Amino acid sequence: MSRTQTLGEILQARGVSRRGFMKYCATTASLLALPPSMVPRIAHALEHARRPSVIWLSFQECTGCTESLTRSASPTLEGLIFDSISLDYHHTLQAASGDAAEAARHAAMEENMGNYLVLVDGSVPLGNPGFSTIAGISNYDMLVETVGGAAAVVAIGSCAAFGGIPGADPNPTGAAAIQDLVTDKPVVNVPGCPPIPMVITAVLTQFLTFGQLPELDKHGRPVAFFGQTIHDRCYRRPFYEQGLFAETFDDEGARKGWCLYKLGCKGPITYNACATMKWNQGTSFPIESGHPCLGCSEPDFWDKGGFYNPVSTASLGGGAALAGAAAAGVALGAAAAALSRRRQARTIKEG
Amino acid sequence: MDLLEFARGPALQLSIYVLLAGSIWRVLGIALLQSKPDYSEPRQAGGLGGALKVIWSRAFTAPAFKKATMYSKTLGYTLHIGLFVTIFFFVPHILFFKGIFGVSWPGLPNSAIFFVGVITVGVALALLIRRMTHPVLRLISNFDDYFSWFVTILPVATGLIIPIRFGVRYETLLAIHILSVALLLVWLPFSKLAHTFLIFMSRGTTGAILVRRGAKT
Description:
By secondary structure, chain A is α/β, with parallel strands linked by helices.
């Protein structure tokens, strides 16, 4: 596949019809909350775009993000679009290894200086460079070197976006999020454990179309996909409003598909598009499969109380603190009464 | 730590410690006061029974005052019942109590709680207007009355806003709601809101004294 070919030519060669291509453009415009008038512009931009160079760095991660992407609907148009980028470095997927792989990364950086995209999955250990290395290079050094000539950085998955599971308390490796380390380049977070593949391709499409990154929320996530909570768009929401809840995973309520709030669903405080875009070619999403949302696209989701504790659960901080407060109350009450008695006695004495 | 974590964690914990310490302080400070010596013979036995009876009987207005107090009593009861229902029958609240005490009970649908909440806020506003316009009430009202009204109704109002949103994020509104509850808990033992528990002490004491003196309870 030549890098000089446009995406339009590549898709045409793959047998993608004009109708199918326009349908993809319309879907993408809709997902990005763009007006229909933008569809021709997206189509024009994609047809004439050169294959952008993408360098994918994998640090402290489980490869779940890559698995999610590669095992997504196959072959979909967005998958073809994604295939049509020039993925010049991805040490899980590439055939090359060792010096050859690193040479490919350097070559891609030099050839596309200032224009390539860096996709990162996994967090970066700052505690000790030896915790995670690739070809003998620490994750931090590789990130800094690679990002130097990038146009933008996309942090894929919750580990890259927020530190994720490696960053969970007590964070033994000193795991840091990409946005905390890259301050001089635009960074888009596409969190999730794993993230929705379509969100990744839509972000890339927007970048190809408009040459800019999408509007982001306070956590650096594209608003188009992370603007609403799972709870807002959940098909079980009416049961929440009616006060109908599953109490256990196998009770009558669970069988009837009632709300999973009592089983710890974090849908009300989780911003993601799972409830609308779903997974496995639109088959379902975790709540539809009967499991509460874990809130995996939110910062520090691993440390936000138990997965099966309802959102409204609070901690009193232990019995010792409560006993201390009670003891303080007893001491203050006794002291106040003693002072009052003394004042009373003095008043009586003075007549 | 984001705002919601702060509200659900340290803020709520601290407010519960203050509530506990402050309530014990107030109760003990009163219970351990030196009582006036009473050298008379008790006219009747059964001080405890009298105390319990008055705690119950004073919840109802004497027939002679019924007409005069009808408006304020009705509003007062509606406010208290409204607060009770919204606090103890909203499912997320029940789960909160279950997390602390380990027991739960059936809740009401959200729409019912929302309806009761709106009524509660409306009644509270009517009571505030009455306090500000009634010549005697206005005269005897101080900062404690107005601030206690504010911290009582704030959690109800912030709770009602959560499902409406007004463009604000859910977790931000939830955090504000929890912080408003924390404010209520901190203020409660040191203000007129301490009647939540002191009412039983004061009425009980009155009942015991009345029995001792041979008065009808």
